[in-house]
Design a protein that fits this description.
The protein has 336 residues and is of the alpha+beta class. The protein is 32% helix and 30% strand. The protein has helices spanning 10-20, 25-37, 57-76, 79-101, 216-221, 251-255, 285-301, 321-332; strands spanning 43-45, 51-55, 107-110, 116-117, 120-129, 136-143, 146-147, 151-153, 158-167, 171-173, 178-182, 189-195, 201-204, 227-239, 261-268, 273-276, 306-309, 314-318. The two termini are 25 Å apart.
Length: 336
């Protein structure tokens, strides 16, 4: 399920506040970069003022070699040495221009981020667009603590870029400032642009690990409820409806090219399960969230119908991926 909403987690706000209190050259550089970037939305266009370029390590070595060749040519009056030196200088200027143009005019738009659990890695997707008709090659994101593979953009087309960012805590996670860089075509220069777009990814709470006792209501539901819709004896087929559990779908009919149907069973219907915050009295808030997260995952895996009661929220009993996401989202966004 893709997440497009905006917001920041408590940990992100704390980190931002700490960064704002920093003093010294690094803080001054951060403020200067923010002023240069201005406000950025979900789509950013890399205009000329946003792009920076400097020689790479290979470029510095290349420049030193050309300088030595130039001094040698002056010292010995070697015309061929002058010719080769000026030729290499021309190649360096052409390489600098092409490296700069590889970024100039590029559009970077957010393409969503799938929710992850705390402790995992959030993968922000970005759509790279080009209106000039030029091919763009070897565009790679980079940031402290995260990166991603390079991407190419065909002329007049688009490419997909992935930025990997650690997700240490639950809530909304922003990628923060990162650089989109390239050294194409020669590697002598590195051009980059700073981005701080308005993207966000939902981070689910980390579920409690190990042997976890189930809620009393869940254990009682194993005895079953009223007779009718159940999961014991096959009764027939009906047309698929949104929210039907995948394990009840008639996949063989679909493979034969027929319309998707859902298998119906008769027997003892499972009782509804309430996962209740109040039932975990005596545990601190984060421990309760971890326990409820584990219960949601276990109930969904077992195919049970479950609801979630939180201090200010009640999600009615249901099942399926959408219901699972609503429950985990409510747990992720609980106040610290």
């Amino acid at each position: 399920m893709r997440t497009e909403a905006r917001g920041v987690s408590g940990g992100e706000r704390a980190a931002t506040g700490a960064a704002g209190r920093l003093r010294g050259p690094r803080a001054a550089l951060d403020r200067w970069i923010r002023r240069r970037m201005g406000r950025q939305g979900r789509t950013v266009r890399l205009d000329y003022p946003r792009i920076y370029i400097l020689p790479s390590r290979a470029g510095v070595g290349f420049g030193a070699l050309v300088a030595v060749m130039g001094l040698g040519s002056v010292n010995y009056g070697n015309s061929l040495g002058f010719l080769l030196t000026f030729l290499l200088v021309g190649v360096a200027f052409a390489a600098m221009l092409h490296t700069f143009r590889n970024l100039a005019g590029l559009e970077v738009a957010g393409a969503g981020c799938d929710p992850v659990f705390a402790g995992g890695v959030a993968r922000f997707r970005a759509r790279l667009g080009d209106r000039s008709g030029r091919d763009r090659w070897a565009l790679a994101p980079a940031r402290a603590g995260g990166a991603g593979p390079p991407a190419d953009v065909p002329g007049g087309g688009s490419g997909l870029l992935t930025l990997e960012v650690p997700a240490p805590s639950r809530g909304w996670l922003r990628p923060g400032r990162f650089a989109l860089a390239t050294a194409f075509p020669t590697g002598l220069f590195r051009a980059w642009s700073w981005l701080d777009p308005d993207w966000a990814c939902l981070v689910y709470p980390r579920p409690e690990s190990g042997a976890v006792p189930g809620p009393e209501a869940f254990i009682a539901s194993e005895r079953g409820g009223r007779f009718g819709e159940g999961d014991e004896d096959f009764r027939g087929l009906r047309r698929y409806q949104a929210g039907d559990p995948p394990r009840h779908l008639a996949w063989r009919l679909l493979a034969r090219g027929q319309e998707l149907h859902t298998k119906q069973f008769a027997g003892r219907a499972p009782s509804r399960v309430w996962l209740d915050w109040a039932a975990l009295a005596g545990m601190d808030a984060e421990a309760r969230i971890a326990r409820l997260t584990r219960w949601v995952l276990d109930a969904e895996r077992a195919g049970r119908i479950y609801g979630l009661r939180l201090p200010d929220t009640e999600i009615p009993p249901d099942q399926g991926p959408g219901h699972r996401h609503r429950c985990l989202e409510a747990l992720a966004l609980l106040p610290a």
